[in-house]
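User: Run a structure prediction on this.
Assistant: Running it now.
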Amino acid sequence: MIEWFFIIGGIVIILTWYYWPSSKASQKERIVELDINDLLDKCHKILLVDGKSKDDVKLYLRHLGINETQVESLTNRALQLHKSLAYKPISSEPSDHDVIEITAPETVLHSEIEFVNSRIGGHGYHFGALLGFDDSYSEEVLKLIAFTIGHRPPIIRSGENSLSQTTFEPLKGSDTVGVRAIRNSTRDAISSYPYLPATGILPFKTKKIVEWEYGGGGLEAELEGIGKDIYALGFFATDYVIHKHIYISNPSINIRLSAFALVADKFTDDSSESLLSEEFTSYLPSDRFNSFSYFDFIGKILDIKEVSIVKDRSGYLAKVKLLTDENDDNFFTIDIFINRQNLKISSLETGMRISGLLWFQAELADYVPGNT
């Protein structure tokens, strides 16, 4: 009996040793199969929202421990999904309209402007400011972004590159907040980013241009300079791909400035010895990012309205005073979009002071495409 016990035990050990690796592999394959839709969705977001390449998708999948054959398969399927959404209309074909054609003249960098190239770039945080940072964007939202990139007619074209834009109105959302996309001559998406048109005009003097190598280089940039010859300012230029020749050759320009809030909260001055007045507002470059376009702020809401993005996403369009001047009510007042998910309190109201982190964007006031 004891001998049979040892014999059976040995057989069990041998069989376990022999089948264990393949059993683990089968289990991993089953897990991948069960989560295939989630994986494809995440891979698609890496391509679309984060603006990354297929190599970044492969890196993400390998990090999950997925074998190389499945990595290649999932990457190809994500690319096919991205392409199919980019060329499929949301409801109906957009109406044709005249496309502004411009020919950028040969220009040289103005002697007062410092020009540098940077490998820093991308719009992941910016889409988080638009849609929230919970990473559960609906397929409708992804479809709208892809639609803008691959299907929406361009509003303006310069050489091989064009700029397209749309709002969330096709999804029964805001007709103001939207997305802009840069495409090349073969309609391939180079980049996309949130877009909020601004109303006011601000004189700006450029001191420095940081052009991104991201997206192929020469298409996107951040600017640093002085607003109204008084206060330091920086922003991402939403029309740089079209108007680069103007930006680099003219240090004195007029811009339309707006912002997206990455986070916002009601401002509370807890200091018992505070010297700040109840009208105090301020902003300063954020040290959390190596970028000119992020600013920490304390601002006062002058006007506000609630807007819908899609059925599960909403926020506020607020006119906010960032600097106070007794002689000028509009000394530094800008339009800001604040997603509800990025708000630390339940609601906002006129007259409230808020604080948080902003991403500034702007475009040339005298050459605003797609807006009247």
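The helical segments are 2-34, 36-48, 54-63, 68-86, 124-131, 139-150, 240-249.
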